[in-house]
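Chapter review: from sequence to fold.
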Amino acid sequence: TNIIGTLQNNGSALASGITEFDMYRLTSSITSDTDPIQSNLERVDDATFSKIGTGITNSSGIFSFPSTGLYQVGHIGQIYPAANDTVTFNIYATANDGGAWDQIVQSNFANGSSRSSGKVTNFSLVNVTDVSNVKVKFTAGSFNSGSEINGATDFNYTCFFFMRVGDSQ
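The token string follows.
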């Protein structure tokens, strides 16, 4: 017998696929505390990149979601702290359009007496139940003279990613 319809799992279609994926990158380095990171950002524009869905909106470093859902939000950062410094790279979320921000991710990279750079990667899930109120921002802090989070316009030295992984919870 032929069955016509969509298989359901608690009201959600099974195997629906990723409906939103987007990436932004830092185009030049940050050298001081920044809240939010709002300058020198661009949607990734390499010839082989394409966002899925409508895409994330960036307004002065505040990122808004195009639809409700459970999103994986993360950052990948190339950090080059000065000697004896620890640089932090953070993600904050709000559920009330910026009335209050909740730190959901903190990545740190530290150097001792010699200087070296390294990558940090971190992410969290953000339950977007209201696209008007749930937003995220990225911040950087604890910069001594000479410390930086590296940026580049031709490749993803430091980038932010957003992937809808399911329905709102």
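Two observations follow directly from the output. The radius of gyration is 18 Å. The longest strand covers residues 69-80.
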